[in-house]
Amino acid sequence: MRIVGFLQNFQGANNGYLRQCLRSMSACTDHIVVYDDASTEDVRPIYEEFGCTVIYGLRNEFHRELYHKQQLLYVALTYKPTWILWFDSDAILGRQFETRESTEATLNSCDEQGIVLLHLHNLNLWRSNRSYRVDNSFNDLWHGVWWRNTGELHYVPVARLHQKQYPQFWLDHDAPVINSKFPGETGKLIHLGFSTDEDIAAKYFKYRENGQTGWALDRLVTEDDKLDLQVVPDEWFPQWYLDEHAAVPYPGPRFTPEDMAKHGSLQEWQRVVR
Fold this sequence. Notes:
Layout: E1 3-9, H1 17-26, E2 31-36, H2 44-49, E3 53-56, H3 65-77, E4 83-86, E5 91-93, H4 100-113, E6 117-124, E7 131-133, E8 142-148, E9 179-181, E10 189-191, H5 197-209, H6 214-218, E11 229-231, H7 239-244, H8 257-261, H9 266-273
């Protein structure tokens, strides 16, 4: 079995997320291919540390992510993978995928069942590295993380937000795609990108600048009396994460849509809060 990691990234050097992502991804892959979306932070040494093959974009084009993934898929397929592993650069895999042995056991089971797309439950850490959010649809998302190389993988890209990130599996788009959800709690996709105030503010302003409005935008900065946080059991994390990251508890409510709407940009918000 040959597994290739597939990553689109912007920044992530300064907050440590890129190294954590690549550490997680490298534990169960043979090689990693990256599209770097014109990062200005010092990401190159991190890519080199993990032996990544990198396409460097000339300008940041967040809204064209599927076009970038189309380029990246061409490169990934040159390594003749059996499976492709994709997730965002502010996430890590749960303990089930901490070793190659347990990863292959899962993928072999998929092969036996004819599954070509395996979804993992997305766990959103919220202003903490031990608590995750379950209200306001924060706990409803499953990502298509594992893709079987069918020999016909391809994208039909569009320049819009919140599109499916996995490719088409068959040239006949009406052909059935056999997919499944990983059932175990230790096989989560653990999303770090809401775990600090800076992360949340950056996402809020990025999506607002790209035209998102209403509930979908406001929920990113809503901490009202319906806020529901749960503690992540240690066994859901890879062991290396627990060893290297002391618990940071949730500090209490801070964000409201009304307050965030007063700020014209992330930089303005940063000046005010600092």
